[in-house]
Amino acid sequence: MKTEIKAITPDSIREAKNIIEKGGVVAIPTETVYGLGGNAFDDSAVAKIFEVKGRPSDNPLIAHVHKDYDLSQIVDYEPDYAKKLRQAYPTGPLTLVYPSKNKVSPRVSCGLDTLAVRVPSHDGAQAFLRAVGIPIVAPSANISKHVSPTSAKHVLDDFDGKIPLILDGGECVGGIESTVCDCTGDVPVILRAGLITREDIANIVGDCKVYEPTFAKGEKVKSPGLLYKHYSPRCQTRLFTAEELETAVLLYQSETKAGKKVAILCEDKWSSLFQTLGAPLFNLGKEQSEMAMKLYKLLREAEEKCELLIAIEPTEKTGIMVGVLNRLQKACVSEDIKRD
């Protein structure tokens, strides 16, 4: 199979729609990351997404719809606070989990009686979703556990020859996946942190809790992104806090002396320290939104240039950084840590 990258035009959208209608999958841009899209109603298309990604069969998917789609076709009930959230964020990096009408493929929610729905703000994604007119499941367009893609090239690197078409919508401006919020209880509960924070949600609806997975045997995964190892570059990684800078420096010096290609990933405030050591540097920047936008891009660049990436956790731990830290910590989990 030849994989083509095409700019988003009426012609390429028609081609993508034709692929979807025939049960195929295409890669589409969103404002967060690129997604691997398929018909949410089609069992075989959903199964194909799991297969081509190598995605665990218990890791649920998110249905993407255009902003005027009638949710009552697929959602059984919408609490008032969820309506307020949709009014505040008619499009954007917010996924809401509802009681499902069980109209989509049962593979989408992996046996759960809920359905996660998102309305992306990316203009190209909206044009595609309007053209197909159906919910499109679209997990990140990367091989399972690899770094999520924020450009069409990233998708090609993982799926060249495996999917027919990548709709190129440019580089993603969000950089990390959407916030996933459970709307099946009395108050919203964040299942996965993202660009819309717990504080943002609480300010709109009055309260918001955060789910803490236990990873106990038999516990069902409620949201994408909850597995231990995720978003990982194809090189060795070590993660240190800002309080462990001295240890990180010693590791850099010892590994470099041993002949290993080592690089540093850190926020801008530590860049001068590592530059004095002559360390190859991947600078996340200063602002929270900048760090979110650059994280996956830099992890992808690092895996091409080094054998060991030493990452330093950003010092800010609130707001958007909750999601950034979540991704960074999962990216740097050792292979010997497994989910039960």
Structural overview:
With 340 residues, the protein is an alpha/beta fold. It has 2 domains: 4-175, DHBP synthase (Alpha-Beta Complex); 236-331, Threonylcarbamoyl-AMP synthase, C-terminal domain (Rossmann fold), CATH 3.40.50.11030. It has 10 helices and 15 strands. The strands form 3 sheets. It has a 9-stranded mixed sheet, with helices on both faces. Strands 12-15-13-14 form a 4-stranded parallel sheet, with helices on both faces. The protein starts with a strand and ends in a 9-residue tail after the last helix. The model is unreliable at 335-340 (pLDDT under 50).
Helix and strand topology:
Blueprint: E1 4-7, H1 10-21, E2 26-28, E3 35-39, H2 43-53, E4 62-64, H3 80-88, E5 94-99, E6 114-118, H4 123-132, E7 136-137, H5 152-159, E8 165-168, E9 179-182, E10 189-192, H6 198-205, E11 209-210, E12 236-240, H7 245-257, E13 262-266, H8 271-276, E14 281-283, H9 288-305, E15 308-312, H10 321-331
Parallel strand pairs: 1-8, 4-6, 5-9, 10-11, 12-15, 13-14, 13-15
Antiparallel strand pairs: 2-3, 3-7, 4-7, 5-6, 9-10
Helix pairs in contact: 1-4, 9-10
Cα distance, first to last residue? 36 Å
* Class computed from helices, strands and strand pairing: alpha/beta
Under CATH at level 1, the class of the largest domain stands as Alpha Beta
Provide the succession of SSEs. EHEEHEHEEHEHEEEHEEHEHEHEH
CATH topology of the largest domain: DHBP synthase
- The proportion of residues forming helix, as a percent range, comes to 25-40%
